[in-house]
């Protein structure tokens, strides 16, 4: 069994294209603009293969993407080079991020389930770490897959998809505070053979009140709490989106 996103890295954006990264990025940008953040430096925490990092780099932001998966960061670097943007990518656990170069950032993102990989006991310290990376007034946009989604849709369920070039199976087990996930992927190689990859993931269930309390305890002021940005890809109550600013 491989670590999370070791096999999925090359296929993640392709398999999740229905979430409409362009619309999602635009929604995030508009929310930042509403908080007066229209330029400067940004952090993409749990950036994966860099979809949001690249989107904000194309808008002229000086972006740094953090992820614990070296495979995801390698994919992010390749896609960025193909698009002619060059964010900085750093291999780091989200709970241990730090500002590179000494300049505090104008905003931070932690979206598309990254926070679900952090155990609830570590969330307060994570928010304090993010606050330390932001200037006063800096915005922090984060989300989680909702408790309802993990308990009722993902947990104790299985999903699969078969495409010409890739097939995957996803088996989930609901536990008290988390969902244990086993993913098997078969990807076609250049010679036509399929390579198998197996990964284990753990996503933790976060209650809204606990997240908001942790953010406020770290020095953030909550600006808004809402449902899914990518309205066409999932029900509104499947995701909790929060905008806050560092006091």
Defining key terms:
single chain; 247 residues; alpha/beta; Rossmann fold; N-terminal domain of TfIIb; 2 domains; 7-stranded mixed beta sheet; 4-stranded antiparallel beta sheet; 7 helices; globular
What is the element layout, followed by pairings?
Elements lengths: L11 H4 L5 H14 L6 E5 L5 H8 L3 E6 L2 H14 L4 E4 L13 E6 L12 H11 E12 L1 H8 L3 E5 L3 E9 L3 E11 L5 E11 L3 H10 L2 E7 L12 E8 L1
Parallel strand pairs: 1-2, 1-4, 2-3, 4-5
Antiparallel strand pairs: 5-11, 6-7, 7-8, 8-9, 10-11
Helix pairs in contact: 2-3, 5-7
Corresponding CATH architecture of the largest domain? 3-Layer(aba) Sandwich
β-strand amount? 25-35%
Q: What integer is the average pLDDT?
A: 95
Decide which structural class fits the backbone: alpha/beta
* Strands, total number: 11
Distance between the termini: 43 Å
State the strand order across the main sheet: 3-2-1-4-5-11-10
Note the overall shape. Answer: globular
CATH class of the largest domain: Alpha Beta
Biggest β-sheet: count, sense, barrel? Answer: 7 strands, mixed
Helix percent reads: 25-40%
Number of domains: 2
């Amino acid at each position: 069994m491989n670590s999370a996103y070791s096999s999925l890295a090359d296929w993640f954006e392709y398999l999740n294209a229905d979430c409409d990264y362009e619309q999602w990025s635009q929604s995030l940008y508009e929310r930042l603009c509403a908080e007066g953040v229209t330029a400067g430096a940004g952090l993409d925490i749990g950036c994966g293969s860099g979809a949001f990092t690249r989107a904000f780099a194309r808008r002229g932001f000086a972006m740094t993407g953090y992820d614990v998966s070296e495979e995801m960061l390698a994919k992010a670097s390749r896609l960025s080079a193909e698009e002619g943007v060059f964010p900085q990518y750093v291999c780091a656990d989200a709970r241990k991020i730090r500002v590179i170069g000494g300049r505090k950032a104008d905003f931070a993102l932690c979206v598309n389930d990254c926070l679900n990989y952090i155990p609830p006991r570590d969330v307060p310290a994570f928010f304090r770490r993010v606050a330390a990376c932001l200037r006063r007034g800096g915005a922090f946009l984060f989300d989680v897959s909702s408790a309802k989604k993990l308990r009722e849709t993902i947990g104790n369920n299985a999903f699969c998809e078969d495409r010409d070039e890739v097939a995957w199976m996803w088996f989930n087990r609901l536990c008290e505070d988390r969902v244990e996930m086993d993913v098997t992927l078969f990807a076609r190689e250049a010679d036509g053979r399929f390579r198998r990859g197996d990964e284990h993931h753990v996503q933790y269930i976060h209650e809204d009140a606990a997240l908001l309390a942790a953010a406020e305890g770290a020095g953030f002021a909550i600006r808004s709490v809402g449902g899914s940005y990518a309205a066409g890809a999932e029900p509104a109550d499947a995701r909790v989106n929060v905008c806050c600013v560092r006091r």
